[in-house]
Design goal:
Blueprint: H1 11-20, H2 24-29, E1 34-35, E2 46-47, H3 68-73, H4 77-100, H5 136-151, E3 162-166, E4 180-181, H6 185-192, H7 194-201, E5 207-210, E6 214-215, E7 218-219, H8 224-233, E8 238-240, H9 247-251, H10 259-268, H11 282-287, H12 293-309, H13 329-342, E9 344-348, E10 361-365, H14 373-376, H15 389-396, E11 400-404, H16 424-432, E12 436-442, H17 470-482, E13 486-491, E14 504-507, H18 515-523, E15 537-538, H19 556-559, E16 567-569, E17 580-590, E18 593-602, E19 607-617, E20 627-636, E21 641-649, E22 655-656, E23 662-663, E24 670-675, H20 681-687, E25 692-696
Helix pairs in contact: 1-12, 4-5, 4-13, 5-7, 13-18, 15-18, 16-17
Length: about 700
Amino acid sequence: MEIYKDRTKSFEERAHDLVSRMTVMERCEQLKFAAPAIEKLSVEAYNWWNEGLHGVARSGVATMFPQAIGLAASFDDELLKTVAEVISIETRAKYNEFSKHGDRDIYKGLTLWSPNINIFRDPRWGRGHETYGEDPYLTKKLGCAFVKGIQGDGKYLRAAACAKHFAVHSGPEALRHEFDAVANPKDLEETYLPAFEALVKEAKVEGVMGAYNRTNGEPCCGSEYLNGKLKEWGFDGYFVSDCWAIKDFHENHHVTATPEESVALALKNGCDVNCGSTYILVYKAYQDGLITEEEITSACEHLMRTRMRLGMFDETEYDSLDYTSVESREHLDVSLEAGRSACVLLKNDGILPLDKDKIKTIAVIGPNAQSRKALMGNYHGTASRYVTVLEGIQDAFDGRVLFSEGCHLFKDRIEGLALPNDRIAEAEIIAEHSDAVILCVGLDETLEGEQGDASNTDASGDKLTLQLPDPQRTLVKKVLAVGKPTVVVVVSGSSLNIEAEPNALLQAFYPGSEGGKAVAEILFGKTSPSGKLPVTFYKDVHKLPDFTDYSMRYRTYRNERAEDDNVLYPFGFGLSYGDVRVESADARKDGGCVKASVSLINSGAETSDVLQVYFKSDSKDAVRNHALCAFKKVHLRTGERKTLELSIPLSDLTVVSETGERYLDTAAKTVLYFGTSQPDAQSESLTGKKCVGVEIKL
């Protein structure tokens, strides 16, 4: 009886039976990320490596959404789930079509190595824009929504998500292959592990990827401690190494002496599949007595169980998805909605929205104004059409639009034979001839990103400063000196200090293929901005803790020191064209939750905004300031009132001791703050609004 073909049996039973029919060598071969076919068992060749961070990546055309940090700026878990559903539909559609053509290459499978739920603890980290920001609560809520959207809720997974990089990983990029990230028990439980735990326990994420670095001495892809955490949480998916991370065990971490020993360390600590080449030596390690047949079998069964859950041996409800699903108009509309939500208005003296009736000529200036790369972020797919900021403005405005690149993104000239600053005069000239200026500056994935991918080799993809590149700093000063009403649009994946005071400042992050249209809609008031910063924007890196220090002391809004005066714009901050404020709030403990009723009113233009709830405890084990514990995106028309009912689990109001014990401190004074920003003095000053505080007895 071929149990592995029997759909009435559990996926575990079927996987066990299938693997039992393989030779030891065949089982070893299945642990490589490019797994070969086993024809006698009708096991097709399969490549485990695919990416879907903000759209299906690296396999041709797909809907391109804003980069993850821009999705996080939405503070909208329902939107994240919808985005992920689109990604998984397109993943399945492409897989179906590629498989029909016998194409089982890399980036064409159903196992997406996304999302990245590391904590963006330091603004220098080049890969920070792949994450959902600095807050563990926001990260876990958005991460769970993304995983549920990717995997669906049917008998079979529509696609398989993967939580990465486990764990305690956020730069520096240049040291990641050899670095030991030392984190104390409190920081592990309070900051670095909660999102992973939630994705395993709540979202049932199918995959987990280890990190390159060591954590407290153990390499993350062969860590007894981290593997123990997964077992404690009940993880029953597959574990994959980061790419070529296992060879770091012997080459860089020096915790093993040979590749075979590295294989053994990884496999014994739960690493089922190797992205890289070290697992070609699994059979050799077995012959040498370093690993057992049972350990090989267990890893292989985990992988076959995932493939069973994906329906690779059955007919499924997803088989009818075809290429007509890819980059459909419906999916592009979701990308546009996400692009709008990714934009955070940081300053506005009243110039926005621009009044088309009062403006005849607009100057659009800057290296990111007509840049497609500025829309993308890394780990991106290919859109069939891109709308840059310049094109979005040209499409939305009937008057004259003048354009100058102004400067190169980072070089001192655009034309190789020209003198430095060869486009500055042109920028000044068109500013002089315009009624308003849109100055589009920032970075792209070539300046902030992953080691080896970003051309920023001096810092291996990380940032050395929060300033704009020198040519752009010069451009900003020269254009603002012209004296015309100026809106600066910053397109970047992380905190920047433009060191200037324009009339308005809009942070667009990397807004996706429809990003230019989204920006233009906000500039001209078709849409009100509603994004909030998922990271703190700082003035100066020199006032931050050392980049290699993984202690959370004085890091992020939860622990930073107000006396440092280093915050430019706080986490959770973002303006709109409306005037949404909390009128009143009530909260009471009800069983395992706090039930809250919150009344909001909008006295300004129709807009969306984000109700944010923070808790502050005077427990000796609480974070220094306060911590996000709930949020809800809400849309209000002019003059509209809404009452929102929230249920906040007591588990989201816990504190963590120095020994890593998480508990509810019922003796401490706890206050919940309800508002559209943090309850800190700087946010109140920037918004002109105070949060409503309610003391709650836990």
